[in-house]
Request: fold
Amino acid sequence: MKNKFLVAAILGGMVFGAVAAIPQDSIAVVNGEKVSKSVVDFLMSQAPAGYLKDDKRAGEVREHIKDQLVRALVIYQEAKKRGFEEHPDVKIAQNLAAQDVVVRAFIKDYMDTHKPTDRQLKEAYEKMKQNMNGQELHLHHILVSSDKDAKMIRSKLLRGAKFEDLAKRYSKDTVSKSNGGDLGWASPSVYVKSFADVAESLKEGAISDPVKTQFGWHIIRRDAARPTKVPDFDAIKPQLEQMVVQEDLQKYVDSLLKMAKVER
Reply:
């Protein structure tokens, strides 16, 4: 079924964690354990914008998610019965996954609640124009949570998988994933430095090794380059807003590191 692949992408690795905490509202009970309706609603909300506007499609996806949650809970219960929850590697993975969810929620909240002023945006625009190095790049990227996932995706690409399909399935970048990871044309200066440095070093058509930024791990494909055309302020304002908030977030994290008591 066509929707099956979308649902797999929506569920990702979240299903097993999602069924571990069961609220009162439920859509099924498995061996006395409830499957929460709120979990189904959450997973439905992860679909690309506009994909579930069709009522028939939305209904099919919802039913498939329910089936997958029930299946996942059955497996989880059996694994728990066999003591997998007590495996040291499982405990480490659970702790890391929990930490990652909290960190991502914190970053999203920071990005949503710290809107730059017009003055900051104008200053960023002037700085961007000064830093333009004579070319702009057309890039695609896939953003994932771990180096392991990034290496897996790169391996699939090297074996002939289509970049756009993998972006729609795996990418955590909700802005570009529905377009197959397409970032459009932009100066490297609008990206964080580690990302921009790798993008500039790639040849046209080349795919990068995993690149780490504060947002996760990226696989970048460089499609083309052309002489820089300075965009109008209004045309690039959304990218400037993101860039300014990202820089503010980086400064904030750096300040937390300075204040933290870190013993090595």
